[in-house]
Design goal:
Layout (H helix, E strand, L loop, with lengths): L2 H8 L4 E2 L2 E3 L2 H17 L6 E3 L5 H12 L3 E2 L11 E8 L3 H6 L4 E8 L9 E5 L4 E3 L14
Parallel strand pairs: 2-8, 3-4, 3-5, 5-6, 6-7
Antiparallel strand pairs: 1-2
Amino acid sequence: MNTLKKIKEGLKTQDVDDKHYMSWMGFEFAISEFVKHYKKNNLSVDAVYGPPRGGLPIAVTLSHRLNVPLIKDYWETEKLDKVLLVDDIADTGKTLESLIGPKFITYTIYYHKQSTVEPNYWIFEKKDKWVVFPWEEDIYGYENNN
């Protein structure tokens, strides 16, 4: 069975071979869950920052949903009191570890228990499968006219 067919069939469970594919619907669910948490807990931030590449789609989306500025350069966060730091996954924790400080609220879509940093808020626990996000691959085959 070719990879595209495996992926299309695997979308029912989102697992194909040794990978877990997050759909755009799954992404929307994760964003909506965080927005509900943010509002329910009366959180407030001056801006949102997501490290390129995995954090950027999340940061742009949350900037719109929360109506807060998007910070494009990490060093801009120095001028702010409270920043939402977002990333796609806290797997090893190295990315977040290099960026966090007392002014940050951290949010990731996935968190792996081996991570050296546990985000303030995360949606899914990552297991051992590699996670593929919808902005990383054309999982539906549109680029190949399939």
